[in-house]
Each structure stands twice: as structure tokens, then as C-alpha cells.
Design brief:
mainly alpha, 7 helices
């Protein structure tokens, strides 16, 4: 594959990863609105206690109750999710370096792969401590697993570009 084609693929994959980080982070801002939409789609009423639901709907109703109560009595708790969103956006901005000079900044790929792997023990440990259901912990772990896929592709492309560019880090 030619250098130009590899560079295009790297940049497209990097833009995808940046976009995924921004979207993932941005969803941490409107939690109350998101839960209103989700509960509406699932037919869950905030007028009915979560204990009246079972399975997945019980969990969503429980989360909805928690978010409603936090919003009413402790809205400052959402400041933590604001910082979570901010962190995702800042991490996405860091990947602009990979977009501009993928060979020079390939360390970002390794760093992100490590972060993706670390999602799994974090979700498993903290999820259990916080009483998160096992199926939800698996959903959280999937972000790390699915995050690895574009990163492994990026790694392969950047390694190929490095070989084609004769190991000149300054060009790419």
C-alpha cells in the first residue's frame, strides 16, 4: 500500500476514534434528559417505584430514580460527570497529534490501548463495590474491548507507514 493511502486510512480511523471519544464524553452531560428519553422508550414511569419492574427495566428504573433524586437533592454530584465528559473531550484532542504525525505520535496508540485494557479491571472492581449488576459491568467492559479494535488497526497502519517512510519520524 502506498504511503498516501496509508496516511488517509490512518487519518480516517483517527477521526473515527476522536469522534467516538467526543460522543462518548458528551453523553455524560445530559444524564437527566437521556434517562427521560430511555425510560420513555422502555415504557418505564418515574411514578412507579423501581421495585415494581424486573430485569433490565428494574435496573434502568433504579438508575432513573437515582438520577432524579440526585438532580433534585444533590445536583453537585453531576459535576463529576461533567469532568468525565471533559476528560473524554481532552483525550480526543490529544489524538490530533496522531492525526497530524502518526509515526512520531504512535505512542498515543499504545497509551490508549493500555487505557482500554485498564477499563476491564476498573469496571469489574468498582462496579462490584458500587453494586452495579454484572450485565452492566460487561457493557462497561465492552468499551475497552471495542476501543481496542480501531487502535489495533491504527497500530498496524502506522507500523506499515513507518516501514514505508524509511523510519523517518519527522515526515509523519
Amino acid at each position: 500500500m502506498k504511503e498516501e493511502n496509508l496516511l488517509i486510512r490512518i487519518r480516517l480511523m483517527t477521526l473515527f476514534f476522536i469522534g467516538a471519544l467526543i460522543v462518548s464524553g458528551a453523553t455524560a452531560f445530559p444524564l437527566v434528559s437521556e434517562m427521560e428519553i430511555l425510560t420513555s422508550l422502555l415504557g418505564i414511569s418515574s411514578d412507579i417505584p423501581a421495585s415494581e419492574y424486573s430485569g433490565f427495566n428494574h435496573w434502568i428504573a433504579t438508575v432513573n430514580e437515582g438520577i432524579i433524586n440526585a438532580n433534585i437533592y444533590h445536583p453537585f454530584l453531576f459535576y463529576g460527570t461533567d469532568w468525565l465528559a471533559f476528560a473524554h473531550i481532552i483525550i480526543a484532542i490529544a489524538f490530533v497529534g496522531l492525526y497530524r504525525k502518526p509515526v512520531t505520535n504512535r505512542w498515543l496508540i499504545y497509551w490508549a490501548m493500555i487505557a482500554c485494557v485498564c477499563v476491564i479491571p476498573l469496571a469489574a472492581i468498582c462496579g462490584n463495590i458500587r453494586g452495579i449488576p454484572g450485565f452492566w459491568i460487561l457493557i462497561d467492559c465492552s468499551f475497552g474491548v471495542f476501543g481496542l479494535i480501531p487502535l489495533m488497526i491504527l497500530h498496524k497502519y502506522v507500523q506499515s507507514l513507518k516501514r514505508l517512510a524509511n523510519h523517518i519520524d519527522t515526515k509523519y
